[in-house]
C-alpha cells in the first residue's frame, strides 16, 4: 500500500509484519467517504514492543489499533484500561486522552456480533485454537454466551488440550471450533491448524479470525464436511467501527 501522508489527525495500526493488514485500507477509505481530509491512518510496524515509547512521543496521534503480537504486551505502556479490556486481559484499541493512554478491547464486540447469527442450540461447546491476545476476547464472549470452551495449544496447561490430544470424541463433542492462530494467513494460504478434520460434521461451526484469504484452508476443510463456516472479515469491520466510535467519544 502506498505511503500515507501525515495529517493533523493521525491514527494507525500497531503490530509486527502487518503489511497485509485490513485496517489501513479500511480507514483510509472511511476518511475519504466522510471527506475527512485532515485524517490519516498509518501502519506502525515495529520489531519489538520496546520501540513503542518513541512512537508514543508523537503528540499528533489520536488513536491506535493493536494487532499481533502486541495485544497483551502493550498493556504496561498504558495509563488506564477500560473495564472490559481489563477483564479480557488484551487491548486492540488505544485512545489518546488528556489523562494519557487508555486501552480498550473491541475484538469481543466484533466477534460476538459476527458469531451470534450462526449459533444453534447444539453449539454449546467450543474449542479455541491458540492462546494469544485475540483468543482472550473470544473466551470472554463464549463465557458471556454461556458456551463451554477449552483452549487448544502446543503447550500443555491446565484446562486445555494439546493438538496431539484431539480425537474423534473431543472434536464431535465441541461443535464450535475457532481459529485464533495466524495459520493460513496470506501468503501461507495452505497452512492450517493441526486438528482431525475427518471428525468434523455438518453440525459443526468453524470460525476463523483470519480474513485474508476469505476462505482459509481451515474453513475449506470444514466446508467439505458440511460444517457452517465464517471468516473474520465482519468481525474486523465491526471492531474497527467500535474503535472509531471510541476515538470520537468525549
TrEMBL record:
Q: Establish whether keyword Membrane is in the entry.
A: no
Q: Which domain of life is it from?
A: Bacteria
Q: Which UniProt keywords apply?
A: Amino-acid biosynthesis, Aromatic amino acid biosynthesis, Oxidoreductase
Q: Which GO terms describe its molecular function?
A: NADP binding; shikimate 3-dehydrogenase (NADP+) activity
State the top-level EC class.
Answer: oxidoreductase
Which part of the chain is the Shikimate dehydrogenase substrate binding N-terminal domain? 13-94
Q: Which InterPro entries match?
A: Aminoacid_DH-like_N_sf, NAD(P)-bd_dom_sf, Shikimate_DH-bd_N, Shikimate_DH_fam
The EC number of this protein is 1.1.1.25
Picking any one GO biological process from the record gives: aromatic amino acid family biosynthetic process
- Pathway the protein takes part in: Metabolic intermediate biosynthesis; chorismate biosynthesis; chorismate from D-erythrose 4-phosphate and phosphoenolpyruvate: step 4/7
The protein's matches in Gene3D superfamilies, at most eight in alphabetical order, are given as: Leucine Dehydrogenase, chain A, domain 1, NAD(P)-binding Rossmann-like Domain
PANTHER family annotated for this entry? BIFUNCTIONAL 3-DEHYDROQUINATE DEHYDRATASE_SHIKIMATE DEHYDROGENASE, CHLOROPLASTIC, SHIKIMATE DEHYDROGENASE
> Can you say what this protein is called?
Shikimate dehydrogenase
Organism of origin is Flagellimonas maritima
Taxonomic path: Bacteria, Pseudomonadati, Bacteroidota, Flavobacteriia, Flavobacteriales
Gene expressing this chain: aroE
